Amino acid sequence: MKVSKTEANKAIAALREELNRHNYLYYVLDQPEITDAKYDQLYGKLVALEEQYPELVTADSPTQRVGGAAGAGFQTVHHRIPLLSLNNAFSEQELGDFDQRIKRLTGEENPAYVAELKIDGLTVALTYQDGVLTQGATRGDGVTGEEVTANLKTVRTIPLRLRGTPPGLVIVRGEVYMNKGDFETLNRTREDSGETLFANPRNAAAGSLRQLDPKITAARRLDGFFYDLLWWEQAGDNGPATQEDALTQLKEWGLKVNPTSTLCASIEEVITFCRRWQGERLTLPYEIDGIVVKLNSLQAQAEIGTTAKAPRSKIAFKFPAQEVETQVREIIVNVGRTGAVTPLALLTPVQIGGSVVSRATLHNDDFIREKEIRIGDTVILRKAGDVIPEIVRVVKEKRTGEEREFQFPTACPVCGSSVYREPGEAVTRCLGAACPAQLKEFIIHFASRGAMNIEGLGPSIISMLLTREMIKDPADLYALTFDQLLTLERFGEKSARNLLTAIERSKATPFDRVLFALGIRHVGAEMARRLATSFRSIDQLLSATKEEFLAVPDIGEAIAESVIHYAGEEQNRRLIHKLKQAGLQMALAPELQEAALPLTGKTFVLTGSLAVLTRSAAEEAIRRLGGKPGSSVSRHTDYVVAGKDPGSKYQKAQELGVKILDEDEFQNLLQEAAARQEREEVDC
User: Fold this and answer.
1) What is the pLDDT confidence band of residue 353, given thresholds at 50, 70 and 90?
2) Tens of pLDDT along 231-253?
3) How far apart are CA 526 and CA 615, in angstroms?
4) CATH classification code of 454-508
5) How many helices (H) and strands (E) does the chain have?
6) What is the per-residue pLDDT across 393-410, written as a single tens digit (0 to 9) for each?
7) Which CATH architecture has domain 5-64?
């Protein structure tokens, strides 16, 4: 029911305030008052009202935490207050020396300190104008950083609006980090996908915060602690007098402050604090690499000033790394959801970092060769970032001669299909399309919107079908019956009929999308279109030679070899046969084979920025008229479209004599081609 704008404005303000309060209670204080379902209900009401009246959406609305499209890059930010680094202390003696310097510089006999856990994350600065978050930036070199406001808004513990009545301008410093559990989950996902692992939670937090798409950052579950009030702008009020007061003020504004921060009356109490957390650091859900010690008096901090790089009033006490000795009992391999074959060392169980470790990833065959790891070796183990077990080196002097070299498998240990490692890549993959280890993710891809677009077939239903052994590959979807679906949890007659209808409808999916749905490595949606147009049927494609692939513009060695290896696997050929039998489109439609579009056979390469069309819109216009957008300029390129500030592609086009079009000429060509196509359709 639509409400008036006045009523909506009042309701939106109330919902916004209530939801922000509940976010504060849940994420900062860890004291939720309502259930997740109740929160979702309130959030849904706010979304509905803002959709009716988008002009009422404000920057501090909870709906604005993740919004907008991915950016093209990050703007440089000049920090109003430099974010200086800290001098380090590596022993209790050096902490004592720091205390003596403070006493000498301040003239105080018994200076008080605040001891804070040193979070291993990424330093950021937040700017609030009239209480509303207006800018978030990375530390960078301390003088300039990168603006990552949209990404920081996805961190639930960062308030979009400060609580209470803050000053007109507030700048705070803090640390964005990733919890150990979320870090392990992220790295497992990346390992399964054959992606490079993050070395530690700090690297993961930094990589996540610098994503161009805020939605990716939001999915990484970052958190944050705040500890410095850098700027306070309000007439007649100089702000807190001590670091302890500053932490209290930050907390009152709704910023998350680490609860372990402690006021210490002497350096001896600081040392006791350091000893405690050096022993208990592994009990924390997040990573720390030391303790930050700060002179409590903010006035004294200002008076003794800074060096060129660091404040004189603060120091970081760094913890030493932990390493232990153990033995490699065996090396096995796991197959991940994307087919990545990963070796794993089975170790003699050993205590390290507060837990018993009995296995460690060996990443890939290169890692084993570089470290010269053999079965039976004594090795030095540490937890990378105190989280991921990692073999540092082999203790070669303890070898007995009975150690065995590990031979990487030539066949998948799960399904028996061949394994293949592409040139230039570290990851070895199983080539079996229906390998049980990767089957679920494959079927999810197969049914996705850009592939077969089987509406209603989501991950949970796919899991149920696999668990019940109703399907063993994507082709089995087309043999499902009404009665089978009725046995699934929460499936009624309507939902069963809808799913069967969606599956049946997918049989009409064009050949290029069927080809994309097969999940052949390096064959994305665009490459599937090119292959379908060039080879016209699945039989021609799978029987093509390497030379035939390379004769097609923009198809290189990696794609050619990927398709050839796919075609050579018997398991994959059986799947394609079953899909044919099910009635899927395994060839280009006859009308597309017979009729050439106006730009058929023409390859376009875009360079520079276009004023009228976006890059994606220009490429889609080319495809619609039968042309092919290319990524690099070669002698096979027909046109280079040069926008503002063209790059090296423009120069290469000149060198090769490729025709260069400006944006106006490109638009005219598209219009002429479209008109020609329209005339041909009318004639038909």
Assistant:
1) low
2) 988 644 668 999 999 999 999 99
3) 14
4) 1.10.150.20
5) 25, 22
6) 999 999 999 999 999 999
7) Orthogonal Bundle (1.10)
Identify the CATH number of the domain defined by range 603-683.
3.40.50.10190
On whether the CB atoms of residues 378 and 398 are closer than 8 A, the answer is yes
Q: CA-CA distance, 221 to 208, in Å (whole number)? A: 9
Encoded amino acid at 325, one letter: E
**Which residue did the predictor score with more confidence, 632 or 125?**
125
Fill in the DSSP letter of residue 373: -
Closest alpha carbon to 137 in 165, 113, 163, 158: 158
Sheet strands (E) in 15-104: 76-78, 88-89
Non-local CB neighbours of 427 within 8 Å, separated by 6+ positions: 194, 340, 341, 364, 421
Tokens standing for residue 623 = 């495809």
Query: Which candidate in 10, 38, 103, 118 is catalytic?
Result: 118
Closest CA to 512 of 450, 603, 599, 594: 450
Report domain extents, the chain: 5-64, 88-318, 323-398, 454-508, 511-594, 603-683
Residue 99's SS3 state is: helix
Active site residue 103: no
Residues 608 and 643: beta-carbon distance below 8 Å: yes
- Better-scored residue on pLDDT, 44 or 607: 607
pLDDT score for 344: 93
pTM score > 0.70 for this model? no
DSSP state of 226: E
What pLDDT shows up at residue 558? 84
Pick the CATH number of 88-318 from 3.90.180.10, 3.10.450.50, 3.20.19.10, 3.30.470.30: 3.30.470.30
**Of residues 378, 379, 380, the one with CA closest to residue 402:** 378
